[in-house]
From TrEMBL:
Leader sequence segment: none
Transmembrane segments: 51-69, 76-96, 116-139, 151-172, 184-200, 212-233
Protein name, as recorded: Cytochrome c assembly protein
GO biological process: cytochrome complex assembly
Keyword line: Cytochrome c-type biogenesis, Membrane, Transmembrane, Transmembrane helix
Membrane topology: Multi-pass membrane protein
Major site of localization recorded for this protein: membrane
Subcellular location: Membrane
Domain of life: Bacteria
Occurrences of domain Cytochrome c assembly protein (ranges): 58-234
GO molecular function, a single term: heme binding
GO CC terms in record: plasma membrane
Source species of the chain: Geotalea uraniireducens (strain Rf4)
Keyword Transmembrane helix: yes
């Protein structure tokens, strides 16, 4: 099955500036995840390889509406940029071993799968927003900043829903909605950051560069919340 992931990486890197190739790369990745899920009998959301591959596919999936919308003249650059971003995280997944163990009892609930899937959709949209913000800083197209805001707003909605479902999962797993582990602390920081980001836009045109940079910084914070906390801090959410 790993050849499907490798195929998606090659397509993302060398042809994703064309919409049909981008879609083909995403389909190869989704088929890979579907086969992994069928093999495991659950969503592949445990361990660094599966989560990185799921995150990569989430980036491609969440970018699709922006790629096929009436984007500015930089649409090919955006398609290739998101393709490279998806390819990067798929490449990072390759060195890690696959984990085919059954789910521990604490994770055997649909609330866990919903919580994690929504979080990855949010992270992917924050990544899409960061790319749009970087493109705005480069060519000053106002439409890109509008798209960045929409990406962050939908991502914020997904992230808020992820926190709610995570609280319900936590209650079933540990008897409490919140534990104040490092992961939960950084989740709170990220949610508050994007709450402020969404209001920063109200400051007017003079803050446009600040809004673009805030979207880029927010994605860096999202990556630390996902990868940094799991790898550097001991937490109930570590993979």
């Amino acid at each position: 099955m790993i050849w499907l992931l490798l195929t998606s990486i090659v397509l993302y890197l060398f042809g994703s500036y064309k919409r049909p190739v981008f879609v083909a790369a995403l389909l190869a990745e989704l088929v890979y995840l579907g086969l992994r899920g069928a093999e495991l009998g659950r969503l592949p959301l445990i361990g660094p390889q599966d989560t990185l591959a799921f995150f990569s596919a989430s980036i491609g999936l969440m970018a699709l509406p922006f790629i096929f919308s009436k984007t500015p003249r930089t649409s090919a650059s955006f398609s290739w940029g998101t393709g490279c971003m998806a390819a990067l995280f798929a490449l990072l997944a390759l060195p890690f071993p696959t984990l085919n163990m059954p789910l521990p009892p604490v994770l055997k609930t649909y609330w866990f799968e919903l919580h994690v899937a929504l979080a990855f959709f949010a992270y992917a949209l924050f990544g899409v927003g960061a790319l749009l913000g970087g493109m705005f800083l480069f060519n000053k197209e106002k439409a890109l900043l509008d798209l960045q805001y929409k990406s962050a707003l939908v991502g914020y909605s997904f992230f808020s829903a992820s926190m709610v479902s995570g609280g319900i999962w936590g209650y079933y797993a540990w008897g409490t909605y919140w534990l104040w582990t490092p992961k939960e602390l950084w989740t709170s920081i990220l949610w508050l950051f994007y709450s402020l980001y969404l209001h920063l836009r109200l400051k007017g045109p003079q803050w446009e560069r600040g809004v673009a940079w805030a979207g880029i910084i927010g994605f860096a914070a999202a990556l630390f919340t996902y990868l940094g906390v799991s790898m550097l801090m001991k937490s109930s959410h570590s993979f």
